[in-house]
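User: Just a sanity check before I run the rest of the batch. Below are the structure tokens for the first item. I only need the designed sequence back.
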């Protein structure tokens, strides 16, 4: 049973080069054996060489904005900095101080599910933990201090979390451009003037060999668990195979939606979770509406429990709920609680964890879509959607069980730097202009990241 615990403490970054060198040393083995990455393609590594040179000479500040389709992306940034950029520097005759590394922002929740040792490791690698869904002043203060101090770039995923789609960009959050403008502001207060740039980095995955059979096998596992008939065998003709798998994906999605709609209607009295069939709607349009209704139901009952307002995007609402749940799970007033009060705190912690289950379901459902495969029915897209459904099914089963569909390739592409100094005069003119500039830079960054996705 879940018990309440003392409040979460900030884990300060304590970068240690020897830890970084050790991680760089084992990285190829880890990528090959644990991540199943058999091939790495890097484009544009030379773009980072002059900027790293300027950072090391205290002549520039750099933010690296990377795409975040999977949990494996930070390892790809490590590969880029430990292998590709030093190699490009040697080719250009530029001597950089090694190891090349970066400060990075990570979700404070990661050490909670991955283990405390991860917090120790991330700290020694220059990680800055941030509690999502709230104004984490300690994290923001640390980020500003490290940016203005320099020494290494700061790496951020502007999508805010994984979106599970290698070929589709999720909406960007404005936080990264805002950090860059804070850096310009803090430098100006110190009487310093230098370039502050955001460099987009695209990360894209695929399978060395189209895993059609493994996709079918993973679908069969889910169909069996759901009590659905397992369609066999898999057609060999490409078009027939795609239609066969697409029909199975839709059938599985329809079954899961039907079950969850009935679940929320019966046990949480949320009948608006379902929608009656509309013959004027296409299959994907109907699926989209049903998903939106289901996500709304799951979020609404959780927000009602925690007393949180349902405002903003789905991701915003999930993060506020996570923050509210953590306040009940990790008590800042722990030291003042009497034994009886701690017993009651345990009770509310158990209820909070149960309610957060709904928010975690919504996070998985956010990436579910039918048109992603329909618009381009490749093995890679089929695999991504199948793995998303697998994450939903394993969540419903109460298990964390990753699936392996085979050896992968990864493409890492460095894009054109975005110079924030060009926007500085407009930004500092007034608050309204500042917000507009941050949004404009966010849009431009999204365009450049989108351009790094190659079909």
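Assistant: Here's the designed sequence for the first item:
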């Amino acid at each position: 049973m879940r018990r309440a615990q003392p409040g979460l403490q900030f884990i300060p970054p304590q970068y240690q080069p020897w830890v970084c060198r050790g991680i760089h040393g084992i990285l190829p083995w880890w990528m090959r054996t644990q991540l199943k990455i058999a091939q790495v393609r890097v484009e544009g590594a030379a773009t980072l060489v002059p900027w790293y040179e300027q950072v090391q000479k205290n002549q520039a500040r750099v933010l690296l904005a990377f795409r975040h389709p999977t949990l494996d992306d930070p390892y790809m940034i490590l590969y880029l900095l430990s292998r590709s950029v030093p190699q490009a520097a040697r080719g250009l005759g530029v001597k950089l101080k090694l190891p090349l590394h970066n400060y990075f922002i990570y979700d404070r929740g990661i050490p909670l599910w991955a283990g405390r040792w991860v917090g120790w490791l991330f700290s020694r690698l220059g990680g800055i933990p941030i509690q999502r869904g709230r104004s984490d002043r300690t994290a923001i203060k640390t980020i500003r201090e490290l940016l203005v101090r320099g020494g290494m770039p700061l790496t951020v995923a502007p999508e805010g979390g994984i979106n599970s789609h290698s070929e589709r960009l999720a909406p960007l959050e404005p936080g990264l451009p805002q950090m860059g403008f804070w850096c310009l502001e803090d430098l100006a207060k110190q009487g310093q003037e230098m370039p502050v740039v955001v460099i987009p980095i695209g990360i894209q995955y695929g399978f060395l060999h189209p895993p059609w059979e493994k996709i079918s096998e993973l679908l069969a596992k889910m169909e069996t668990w759901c009590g659905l008939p397992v369609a066999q065998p898999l057609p060999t003709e490409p078009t027939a195979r795609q239609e066969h798998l697409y029909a199975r994906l839709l059938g599985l999605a329809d079954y899961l939606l039907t079950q969850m709609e009935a679940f929320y209607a019966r046990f949480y009295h949320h009948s608006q979770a379902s929608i009656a069939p509309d013959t004027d709607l296409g299959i994907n349009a109907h699926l989209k509406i049903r998903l939106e209704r289901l996500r709304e139901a799951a979020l609404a009952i959780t927000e009602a429990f925690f007393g949180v307002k349902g405002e903003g995007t789905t991701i915003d609402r999930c993060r506020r709920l996570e923050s509210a749940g953590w306040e009940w799970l990790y008590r800042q007033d722990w030291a003042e609680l009497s034994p009886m009060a701690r017993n009651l705190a345990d009770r509310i912690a158990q209820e909070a964890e149960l309610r957060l289950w709904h928010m975690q379901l919504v996070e998985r459902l956010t990436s579910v879509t039918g048109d992603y495969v329909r618009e381009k029915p490749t093995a890679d897209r089929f695999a991504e959607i199948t793995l998303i459904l697998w994450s939903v099914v394993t969540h419903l089963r109460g298990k964390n069980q990753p699936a392996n569909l085979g050896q992968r390739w990864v493409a890492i592409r460095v894009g054109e730097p975005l110079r924030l100094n060009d926007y500085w005069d407009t930004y500092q003119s007034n608050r309204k202009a500042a917000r507009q500039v941050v949004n404009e830079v966010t849009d431009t960054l999204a365009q450049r990241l989108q351009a790094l996705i190659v079909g």
